[in-house]
Amino acid sequence: MAFPKDFLWGGATAANQYEGGYLSGGKGLSTLDAITGGSKEHPRMISFKTKDGKTHQVTREQSLPAGAVGYVDPEQYYPSHVATDFYHHWQEDIALFAEMGFKCFRMSISWARICPKGDFAINEEGLAFYDRIFDELQKHGIEPVVTINHFDIPMHLADELDGWLDRQVVDYFVFFCETIFKRYKGKVRYWMTFNEINFLRSWTQIGIHDNSKPKRWQAMHHLFVASAKAVMKGHEIDPDNQIGMMVAYIPSYPMTADPKDVFAALQFNRDQESFIDVQVKGYYPAHRIKEFEREGIVIEKLEGDDELIAQGTVDYIGFSYYMSTASSADPDKVKYVGGNQMPAVKNPYLTESDWGWAVDPLGLRISLCKLYDRYNIPLFIVENGFGAQDVVEADGTINDDYRIQYFRDHIQAMKDAVELDGVDLMGYTPWGCIDLVSAGTGEMSKRYGFIYVDLDDEGQGTLARSRKQSFFWYQKVIESNGESLGE
């Protein structure tokens, strides 16, 4: 048998895309609460007010004027406000996860639900909400895998302190971590500090107004320090805690055997891996330091920061894998943007999803081998999945054979990496195990789940849950510990 008996089969979600209840139970606003819906053709937008009181919108990649504050326009639709309403459906949803046989459930805790302004003021009602979730999971024998911060920041910190650019936010985050480590000691053993840390940028995710490269890297340094401090605090509070980091991993192949293309792929790959280097090896890689020197980027550090980063290394690497890409040294060829926010060159050897994401199961095995060879610590695939437009048949069935095929091929690649390559793989939590709002486009029509949720792109629907065909398929996969993948 390829997978160990304690392999963590499950599924993954994020509070801002799934939880809803955006002002319920004392929760404060987060930056994602001011982000509109969107589509493949129209980007999601940040709603904000300037000092003169006028309201504006910009894309999530653009900088905001100094002093601009997030704004929730009652005339706009903001998907995070209800999302797919785990806040009111948690018992039903956890029962469905248990029916599938989940060994674990990856979720995130909303910082603004615990600390409404992100500071040292605690909302007891928010803590109690997650107590209920963890107790219910425990009742069903499901291990929670908690992402401490998933793609947002309390809006107060973004508006008043310029987010992660302000060193105070490190202390606020570590306080938040200490609060949940103590409160949920014995209930949660698996943690990750930041979701897809290599994608964090802009006001949306880290609360900074100026999204220029020097500002982003200064904020990123504060994130690295905060992660290291959180790891050390979590181990101090409970030595049984397993605390990982999380990166979006998209391996890139050279478009040709031209050494220039090979070097372009190397640069693409090590850019992602540098974020892992800091959190696993405990230092900035030499190529990143040289890059800062060439571009005149000076990271302001406090005395002892490098020592903190060296001491606060993680226990495992969590990563998302959806696709691979290709690299070319010819700038005229690098103009195709395919999936997960990465400029790329279309790979003619691969098929794609409706959203332009290359489907590459062997790329997952390649990724597992590369990461394990490079770091030699346990790996955890915490996101993988296939976004598609599902059709509900007249009899209520949802025949998502395309999703089953995607998962079958990727799980086989995992098995090969474990059985043939000796990779130490902890678990597998496919993304959006229940339908939720797309982070990239804000759509509901881009569905990932084994469980269908009746909601459309405008937020209309009953929120009723129903099982797709992939639900029953994944149930058998888990029951057989990955041995039964079907035909």
UniProtKB/TrEMBL annotation:
What PROSITE patterns does the annotation carry?
Answer: GLYCOSYL_HYDROL_F1_1, GLYCOSYL_HYDROL_F1_2
Which SUPFAM superfamilies does the protein's record reference?
A: (Trans)glycosidases
* Record: active site: 383 (nucleophile)
UniProt keyword terms in alphabetical order: Glycosidase, Hydrolase
Q: Which domain of life is it from?
A: Bacteria
Q: Does the keyword Hydrolase apply?
A: yes
Q: What GO molecular function terms would the record report?
A: hydrolase activity
Under the heading Pfam families, the entry gives: Glyco_hydro_1
Q: Which family does it belong to?
A: Belongs to the glycosyl hydrolase 1 family.
- What name does the UniProt record give this protein? Glycosyl hydrolase
